[in-house]
UniProtKB/TrEMBL annotation:
Positions annotated to bind ATP: 6-13, 32, 123
Coiled coil (UniProt feature): none
Active site: 99, 200
The encoding gene: mnmA
Location of this chain's protein in the cell: Cytoplasm
Catalytic activity: S-sulfanyl-L-cysteinyl-[protein] + uridine(34) in tRNA + AH2 + ATP = 2-thiouridine(34) in tRNA + L-cysteinyl-[protein] + A + AMP + diphosphate + H(+)
Region called Interaction with tRNA, residue ranges: 150-152, 346-347
Family: Belongs to the MnmA/TRMU family.
Annotated site residues (Interaction with tRNA) in this chain: 124, 378
EC number assigned by the record: 2.8.1.13
Domain tRNA-specific 2-thiouridylase MnmA-like C-terminal stretches: 321-394
Name of the protein in its database record: tRNA-specific 2-thiouridylase MnmA
Length: 395
């Protein structure tokens, strides 16, 4: 089988290529050049240069064909511009999820197929399996990686059946230490290379500095809301339906300037996110202050003190039906149906017990326990045991 590997210059994709070669496949390595601007990275030079050199050395060591494809224009259009737009709206995007959906498993995959590939492989800690239904149709399953500490199935939560049918994740059965050990045994140059940090394919960046390329700083007020605010002492209403209850539990509290006290200034609400505590420059508190809301129209940030601050927690989140994605279309809920699942809305977040609900007007994830810092724009994903079956953008 001919397999094109997205060779990124890291240890995970390097071992992916090696394992496929050992399995007897015809392996071709492609390096995606997705970013050219070194001005916003925290390294001395744009990391893609070092990464492409490392990828080339791995390909030479394994004796497999290697080429670089420039996807920087596409990446800017589909990922970077999307990020700027989302932050401008006061939402919290996840570029890594979008990168997999829009770049790696869309344009990159199509490029690989045009080269005659049967499959595309990446160095994700995830697994793909398949079964056949009663009609003889093959159904593909996106499973968590065996290494619980490195499981990256969340980043793949927007993939569909067609994409999964062409995807391979050879290191999904391994732990990170095992991957590094294989790389050392093969004397691959990437064996002890640090894991990449920061934005997908861009590198480690100062996010405010990065966003300031297009989003203009503008001074605004930081307003502290207090735990004894009347906003948190309202009686819970009697609900006429489950949908009405979930609307209430997932609601965004409409804070006003008069609800709290001005305690500082910031340089733009669009540079911050819900749950953030760093970079606010707030002192004089026993515990850290966390952002609980942003008024984008008036450029105001609302904060509350402490991890237990009531405005930081919600029992449910809402997803518009237009933003709903099922990896397993055969499990899609009909109106009025619900299902017990495990769910998360951040990478590395421990899976939480939850129930998903489908209604004609919206989709809800209701958690057994209140969750901290649920932010609009994040991706929520839900699982049955270790299989990721669906996801959606939080509204």
């Amino acid at each position: 089988m001919k397999v094109v590997v997205g060779l990124s210059g890291g240890v995970d994709s390097s071992v992916t290529a090696y394992l496929l070669q050992q399995q007897g496949h015809e392996v071709v390595a492609l390096f995606m050049r997705n970013w050219n601007d070194a001005s916003v990275t925290l390294e001395d030079e744009c990391p893609w240069i070092e990464d492409s050199n490392d990828a080339l050395m791995v390909a030479q060591k394994l004796g497999i064909p290697f080429q670089v494809i420039d996807m920087s224009d596409l990446y800017k259009e589909r990922i970077v511009d999307y990020m700027f737009d989302e932050y401008q709206k006061g939402r919290t995007p996840n570029p890594d999820v979008l990168c997999n959906r829009e770049v790696k498993f869309d344009v990159f995959m199509k490029t690989a197929m045009s080269l005659g590939a049967d499959k595309v492989a990446t160095g994700h800690y995830a697994r793909v399996d398949s079964t056949t239904d009663e009609n003889g149709k093959e159904i593909f399953h996106l499973l968590a990686g065996k290494d619980n500490n490195k499981d990256q199935s969340y980043f793949l939560c927007q993939l569909n059946q067609d994409q999964l049918s062409k995807a391979l994740f050879p290191i999904g059965e391994l732990t990170k230490p095992q991957v590094r050990e294989i790389a050392r045994e093969m004397e691959l140059v990437t064996a002890d290379k640090k894991d990449s940090q920061g934005l997908c394919f861009i590198g480690k960046v100062s996010l405010p500095q990065f966003l300031q390329q297009q989003l203009v700083p503008k001074e605004g007020e930081i307003i502290e809301i207090f735990k004894d605010s009347p906003l948190f002492s309202q009686e819970i209403p009697v609900f006429s339906s489950k949908e009405e209850e979930l609307e209430f539990l997932s609601r965004k509290i409409d804070y006003k300037k008069s609800d709290g006290k001005v305690i500082g200034k910031h340089q733009g609400a669009q540079f911050f996110t819900i749950g953030q505590s760093k970079g606010l420059g707030i002192g004089g508190h026993k515990e850290s202050c966390f952002i609980v809301s942003r008024d984008m129209e008036n450029n105001i940030i609302f904060v509350g003190e402490g991890h237990s601050f009531p405005g930081l927690h919600k029992k449910a989140l809402k997803i518009d039906n237009t933003e709903l994605h099922w990896v397993r279309e055969d499990l899609r809920l009909k109106n009025g149906e619900s299902m017990e699942v495990m769910a998360r809305f951040r990478y590395r977040q421990e899976l939480q017990k939850a129930t998903i609900h489908q209604f004609e007007n919206a989709f809800f994830v209701e958690f057994d326990e209140p969750q901290s810092a649920i932010a609009e724009g994040q991706f929520a994903s839900w699982y049955l045991e270790d299989e990721l079956i669906g996801s959606g953008v939080i509204s």
